[in-house]
Amino acid sequence: MQELELLAPARNLDIGIAAIDCGADAVYLAGPAFGARQAAGNPIEDIEKLCRYAHRFGVRIFLTLNTLIYDDELETARKMAHEAEDAGVDAFIVQDLAVLKFGLKVPLHASTQCAIRTPEKARMMESLGFSRLVLERQLSLDTIRAIRQATSCELESFVHGALCVSYSGNCYLSEYLSGRSANRGQCIQACRSLYDLEEETAPGKFRRIGRNKAYLSLKDLSLKTRLAELSDAGICSFKIEGRLKSRSYVTNAVREYSLALDDIQAPRTSFGSVSGGFTPDTSKTFNRDFTSLYIDGKRSKWSSLDSAGHLGEEVGKVISVSRAGGEMTVRLGTSGTDGIPALHNGDGFAFISPGGSLTGFRGSVCQGNMILARSVDGISAGMTLYRNIDSSFEKKLETSPCKRQLHASVKLSFTDTSLLATAESEDGRTVSLELPFQPGTAENQERMLSLLKTQIGKSSGIWAFTLEGIEAGQLPLLPVSFINSVRRGLAAELDSLPCNSRPLASGTVSAEKISSPLTYKDNVANTIAAEILKERGAEISEKAYEISHREGAELMRSKYCVRSQLGLCPGKKPREDAKPLFLVNNGRRLRLSFDCTQCEMTVSAASDIGLKTPGTPS
Question: Given 3-state DSSP classes, what are the helix, strand and coil percentages for the chain, each rounded to the nearest 5?
Fold first, then answer.
């Protein structure tokens, strides 16, 4: 069976360590720059600390160097990459092909930003020397199997977290609207904005058919119950999204998915076991409801139309709101057969205002069906109230951390005056320790044996020991302090040796020609990337959109379809009488086009409506 890896996100050092303690086999995070989440950078010093901690368990650290790089940034990026390599990172997650020429010794993984969604693209990326491919999220199991058959390198798949509506790496909406490129780590998340939906009834004439909905916002991905199928299809690394998410979100998701991977009963890529902690529940932390997306090759209701934020669980209908002195008292009635769930002081609540926006507040006092809170506008009788922060659950996450330990078996061999203790760790490290002691036989042999098992079997640091065997004629009389010093000494000796980490696959360069011309969608942003592609015979007709700003460019392409979401899908053959659809926000009109033969929707620029200076989505 192939070894499986749970890959966790980390915004910073603290979250990275917490993810490892909860069962992550690998952690990905950004360095000081060139990461696709600009707000999640980390200094090299913190990366080095995380590598030291992770490598004790054979956990891998991947650095996200996954933005497009301009020519005047290449040297800075190269220097940063080498500093991160020296700090101990195990691989780089890469979008820009120029990194292939940085002279790095560790493996390179092709980011999901490389838009890998066909066997042909997968073969090309493997031929360039990438050892792992991070696949597009909007793939079916059948397509994943086809990619597995076409390539020999490792395959990584997202299994949980936020979803981009566009194919990864080919979203240019943020750049078009604001000059802040998603391919440069600056996405404004225009897909989470509220839009009006219009249809064109005649040239230049529009009729609004929907108002203030998050038409481009997808629910969050959850494939916890599909991990075995993904593994059978060829996935070896299961990735959780969330480098901007909180510690509680990351630890909760990592623990839940680590337990789910354990159920597959396949070997993991790292060592150690997790004990204690909390009972995970990903429905309790930030989510937009969940979808399995296109894994079955079918569409369903993927969009979080009513809200792009975290609504949480429905708790009831508002039956009254009273206000006094800057505070409000909200009383709830049941909205279902289960009644109102137990509420706690400090819980967070949310409701959708008549205008479509999500408004939240904290309950200072929660008793039964009554919530006392600071007054907020917009809430009224008849609305549905949701709980999006369960303070009791959050407290458990904070006060009940998981503990990760490595296991080692111990054997003791006694002479009349000395003890030889040997230990072997689960990753294959072996150490020995010889200590003298005062001669003397224990009068109660059973009690001495029990004491040895108990004291040696305790933990020291990250080590959990088990006494496996004793060679002795008669057990000597040993004080507890001596036995404890044996255990601590073995732990120190094991700590002094590097973990026998499982090797990470390395890439191999091979010949693979490029026959079709490359366009702005191929994201060629610098001369080194261009040279690499030209060596493969590629004709580069356009530079990256961020440089060319091609007029009439396709700003998004997706398996998600607004028509399908609204029940208007005509099937493989488009209706001749279907009217053009547009999304409108803040004076910008976006055209929706439908490639029904491929079951894909595209978004492109249509027009600005009476704006002297175009703005960004509200």
Answer: 25, 30, 45
